Amino acid sequence: MRGSYPLAIAVSLCxxxxxxxxxVYGWEATSKRELKPMPQVVQAKLVTLEPKVTKKxxxxxxxxxxxKRRQRELDRQxxxxxxxxxxxxxxxxxxxxxxxxxxxxxxxxxxARAEKERQEQLDRERQSAFExxxxxxxxxxxxxxxxxxxxxxxxxxxxRIESVWSRPPSARNGMLTVAQINFVPTGRVVxxxxxxxxxxxxxxxxxxxxIRKVEVFPEVAELARREPALFEREVxxxxxxxxxxxxxx
Length: 249
Hints:
By secondary structure, the chain is mainly alpha-helical. The protein contains five helices and three strands; from the N terminus they run ααββαααβ.
């Protein structure tokens, strides 16, 4: 039994190899037999040969240098504007502050100018008031001096008249006679009248007689020479009071 196994295996291998050879060679023969050549059909086609046209190369479009330059300029300006915009926004408060400062300075200048004008006006008013007061004082002084001069002349006239005045026996103390005397610049009396009588005719006539006796008054002439306006205003026509006061009763 053990000697039959190798024989059996050998026989089995031979049978399988024969079967495989048969299958391979048989398949190739069948395949060769079945393949038939296909008829070849030739198709004719008319070909028209056209002359070969050489295509011209299209030149590149002409560039408008001027337009390109303007475009570059516009682009540059746009970029510049874009750059400046933030700066403008940033500088706006500075401009506002500068304008505010300028307005404040102008306001201060206007106030200073107004204050200066007001001070100048006050100074002018003070100066004018001072000058007016000075003029009034001078006028008062002049008036006082004029009054003193007139009073001095009037007293001189009275003294001269009373030095030659002879009172009548009928005169009584307290009697008053007011006489008006008209002078010329030489101091001479040109007229004498009683403007208010004493009630005693003899006394009134005695006053006029004394005035005519003196006739010329040097003090009047001196005043007329030194102050002609004052003479014309105050002395040319002079009123004098003659009162009887020193008679023994």
